[in-house]
Amino acid sequence: MSINWNEANYLGYEWILDKPEEQFYIKDDFDDDRLILSGPSTKLGLSAYQEKKVRDGWSKILPTLESVEMLWVAPKVNQTLFDAICSMPNLKGLSIKHSSIKHIDFRKLCNLVYFNLGSSTQLETLSGVEQLTNLKWLEFENIKNISDIGALSQLKKLRVLGLNGSMWTTQKLDTLSPIQSLTNLERLTLVNTRVFDKSLEPLHNLPYLKRVDIAEWWPDEQISALHKANPQLINS
Does this model's pTM top 0.85? Predict the structure, then answer.
């Protein structure tokens, strides 16, 4: 999903784009409310072993950072690091570029308002995601093992939802039916995503839906029916 400044400001989430300076080394006394974890500069001249030691240290430090409310992580996140992130006490926003995680204990992320999980091809289920009752913005990319999105139907506060494939991998979903209960939804992206029942009808009665980004493979009659149900809708 590509969000620009105007759209983020409109949705009230400009803080997602207002990123701080990237960090590789984290100090125990870090006290900013936003943190970006990135790879080391080539100027540091670290070996792969040295880089791994620093990243392994993130798992020990992150759960102690009470000030951090928004976290971005660029390097690939393994299960140990992800579990440590879930233990951060005051996290409200989380963006992960890609991961090798297999499961998520959603109970520990119940304060999230914003959650962006990039390519995570080993994730096995979304069971428990319904516990993220404060969530307003949710994006998944390339969670290719998951086709059942039924648990999303309980996320009544969602305003932005992305269920996307990657550049090379198509995301496959059983149906969009669970989305019909998300009555506060304003934007939906289904980039490189195929839906087995080929129906956009679950989107017809979403009163605030303003934009849908979908692939060209959808049948013309489904596109026409969606625009008839919501003439103001923008799709690309």
Answer: yes
73 close to 95: Cβ distance less than 8 angstroms: yes
Nearest Cα to 185, choosing from 218, 162, 164, 216? Answer: 162
Tell me the pLDDT tens digit for each residue of 80-106.
999 999 999 999 999 999 999 999 999
Count structural domains, the chain. Answer: 1
- pLDDT tens digits for 170-201? 999 999 999 999 999 999 999 999 999 999 99
Instruction: Give, in degrees to the nearest 5, the angle at Cα 136 between 224 and 170.
Output: 50
Closest CA to 154 of 134, 169, 172: 134
State the Cα–Cα distance between residues 24 and 55, nearest whole angstrom: 8
Structural domain that includes position 178: 5-235
Read off the tokens for 163. Answer: 């269920």
Q: What pLDDT score does 41 carry?
A: 74
The pLDDT-based confidence of 141 (bands split at 50, 70, 90) is very high
Q: Which long-range contacts (CB under 8 A, 24 or more apart) does 16-23 make?
A: 16/70, 16/93, 16/95, 16/114, 16/137, 19/72, 22/74
Contact at 8 Å (CB) between 226 and 203? yes
Per the structure block, which two tokens stand in for 229? Answer: 């149900």
Q: Angle at Cα 18 formed by Cα 12 and Cα 20, nearest 5°?
A: 145
